[in-house]
Amino acid sequence: MTTTYHLSCDCGNTTLTAHGAPEATLYCHCGSCRALYGTVMLAGTAWRDDRVEPPASDQVIDYRMSDRDMRRFVCKTCGVTVYGRHRPGMPVIPHSLFRKANGGELPAELAPTLHLFYRDRVLDVADDLPKSEGGELMGM
């Protein structure tokens, strides 16, 4: 049986669906992710394109970083980031959307398994997950 996640922004006007399992579920500390998502680290899941049904293009604002090949898609109504797209090109869905759809809890199967670009961190994290200095644990 394939798991299906029905996700939405805060106002419910923008929705997306993810099927199956992500390629990765992680914390990323790189400066690019911090800038794109406006956070001290990204907690998210990376998916193959064929496992994500993105929102209709008229529901989102497509923000492109001027100096990097990275994009963030936000709800036109409430401004919540619903997903991003960056290296290696897969859709990246923030954990916050999965928590919202699951009563505030991250589904156990989506628990992060590693930290990427930990050398760039602005916040130390005391957990037992592998901490990749760069992107080598993901082949980056």
Task: State the CATH topology.
Answer: Metal Binding Protein, Guanine Nucleotide Exchange Factor, Chain A
> Which regions contain 5 or more consecutive residues with pLDDT less than 50?
none
The helix/strand series, from N terminus to C terminus, equals EEEHEEEEEEHE
Number of helices, where a helix is a run of at least 4 consecutive DSSP H or I residues? 2
Q: What is the CATH architecture assignment?
A: Beta Complex
Mean pLDDT: 92
Q: Number of domains in the coordinates?
A: 1
Using only CA atoms, what is the Rg?
A: 14 Å
Q: How much of the residues is beta strand, in percent?
A: 25-35%
Given helix and strand content, the structural type is mainly beta
* Share in helix: 10-25%
CATH class annotation? Mainly Beta
- Across the major sheet, the strand order is 6-7-8-9-4-3-10
Distance between the termini: 31 Å
Largest sheet: 7 strands, mixed
Number of strands: 10
Instruction: Name the overall outline.
Output: globular
Task: Please explain how this structure is put together.
Helix content is 10%, strand content 31%. The protein has one domain (4-122): Metal Binding Protein, Guanine Nucleotide Exchange Factor, Chain A (Beta Complex), CATH 2.170.150. The protein has helices at 31-37, 95-101; strands at 4-8, 15-19, 24-28, 42-46, 52-53, 60-64, 71-75, 81-85, 91-94, 115-116. It has a seven-stranded mixed β-sheet. Strands 1-2-5 form a three-stranded antiparallel β-sheet. It is mostly beta strands. InterPro entries: CENP-V/GFA, Mss4-like_sf. GO terms for molecular function: carbon-sulfur lyase activity; metal ion binding. Belongs to the Gfa family.
